[in-house]
Amino acid sequence: MHVTSTPFGSWPTPLCSEVVVAAAVRLSEVHVDGADVVWSEGRPQEGGRTQLVRRAPDGTTTELLPDGMDARTAVHEYGGAAWWVRDGVTWFANWADQRLYRLVPGGAPEPLTPEPAARRADRFADGDLAPDGATIVCVREHHAGPAATDVHNEIVRVDARAPGRPQVLVTGPDFVAAPRLSPDGTTLAWIRWNHPSMPWDSTELVVRDLATGEETVVAGGPGESVTEPRWQPDGSLWFISDRTDWWNLYRFTPGADIEQVVRTDAEIAGPGWMLGSARYVVLGDGRVVFARRSAGYDGLAVRAGDGTITDLDLPFSAISAVRAMPDGGVVLVAGTPTAEPGVYRLDVATGALTTLHGPRDLGVDPGYLSVPEHISFPSTGVDGERRTAHALFYPPANPDRTGPIGELPPLLVMIHGGPTAAAVPVLNPAVQYWTSRGLAVVDVDHGGSTGYGRAYREELLGAWGILDVTDCLAAARRLAFLGRVDGGRLLIRGGSAGGFTTLAALARADTPFAAGANHFGVADLEALAADTHKFESRYLDRLVGPYPEARDIYVERSPIHHVDLLTRPLIVLQGAEDEIVPPSQSERIVDALRERKVPVAYLLFDGEQHGFRRSENIRRALDAELSFYAQVLGFDLPEAEGIEPVVVENL
């Protein structure tokens, strides 16, 4: 095979933006209904709509929702757990009006909850059916007004078979999640927490005797995050807690002490941005199958009845859901470094995998796929102490091209959102879009990221805008020092919280970055504290400091107040309907750069919220960013792709 020397960034690639979005669906949730498996598909080609697909044992698949219906909830704005199934019946929250609907086979969706007085005033999620199937307990988020203080999160009981008004069961806490009924229907368990905690900070697991009203706090409290309560047929209640620094698995049996079922220096749970996580199952024979993350990668393990833990030899590097099948197998939503997420059935006894919904075939030579390497590198803390940070490094990969002799590739530093989240080591064509063109990518798990234990997660407390920036700079400089990338051509990009880190990293006199891309990122911490939704309205209390008492810190760390230090070219991409980071934040940065004649490009996407869902917008955002980098770094774009250049003002 002839390999051609071509400038980095200019490499022709089949992994264009069309491939990134073509036929791509977001697989995240899966449920088992008897012998059937049901999963959700987020479809960019349908405006981001979420369709539900049922697969019968013979392999026949059926799309459940009619045109115009979208199984997506706006609870916490991030959603999750918008649907559930039993005996062929589907219940779901519809995106347009947020009402709960019931769908029987062959029928039309029937609303169960009243039409709200205002659009999306009542939002439902995370439901659990009573053993007799007559009622549902679920989370309701009631919006009595536009302010975060006008939002009330409750647990309600809803008639599962006919329209009616929800009955409030739990009210008072700032947040509630995971309402779960015991097998006999007499006891309700749920998770609760209050401001300023987030669900990965401090939560409580509560149980209530529904006959007497007596409540017991089973686990949790200050400094402990509890999640995923799940009743078992014997009346025990299993849950995940990080009381030992790692999110591990525990069992509560009434009248007995809490028992730690799985102890491992790895994370079984993940951050509770979305409702309905499912990272473990207890099989009928007592074995436990659970996902766990270590050194940036997910794996699947089995705990036998004697406590022995065995790691399964599977190709998966990211697992988003684990559900039990009636026959003792499990269903997974999982992906690998070279394959997007799919739905699989695993025979736990033999290790045999059956593909129920496979990842799409990108139709490209595997040589175009860059496999991430988990790296750990030295960095510093807020007081200058030495510490270790982590990242996933993707070298350029293209079987037909190589860079000019003596040159090193540019580096694109990526920052995940959150900031309490993590880099995901699964095939992402939106990453390969860059690496197959000759750019290296490092996806940074800065201090505060999940997957490395509670202590690492808490390193960011009071230090957002400092520690995350330090780790991004350290990653870029380390890779340049090792001779893996060109230290003169460092780029940085991020969305949401990652956009804030991007802006903060650029607004420094010593920034090593040549340019950056801000995707709906936070520019003004004060504005975020004053003008965001309830779920995150007190998030910054712990990441920055209580507001307004710590206003000076908010001002000091907000990039909008340091535009005099923003001297590097910047592209800004923003959703017009973003309620988490409103367009006004991005536009203030853009206006400031325009005024100071700094090279800037700005794209506002109508109909998009916090994160782009429509295929045409995802394509345009990617191609515009590439065009921006090409103009800034001075490389040519492959003519065959016909990429529309983005207008860069002041360049």
Percentage of β-strand residues: 25-35%
- Count of individual domains: 2
CA-based shape: globular
Q: Looking at this structure, what is the CATH superfamily of the largest domain? A: Alpha/Beta hydrolase fold, catalytic domain
CATH class of the largest domain: Alpha Beta
Strand order of the largest sheet: 30-31-34-33-35-36-37-38
Assembly annotation: single chain
Helix percentage: 10-25%
Could you please describe the fold and organization of this structure?
Helix 4 crosses helix 5. With about 650 residues, the protein is an alpha+beta fold. The protein has two domains: about 290 residues, Alpha/Beta hydrolase fold, catalytic domain (Rossmann fold), CATH 3.40.50.1820; about 240 residues, TolB, C-terminal domain (Neuraminidase, 6 Propeller). The longest helix has 19 residues. It has ten helices and 38 strands. Strands 30-31-34-33-35-36-37-38 form an eight-stranded mixed sheet, with helices on both faces. Strands 2-3-4-5 form a four-stranded antiparallel sheet, with no helix packed on it.
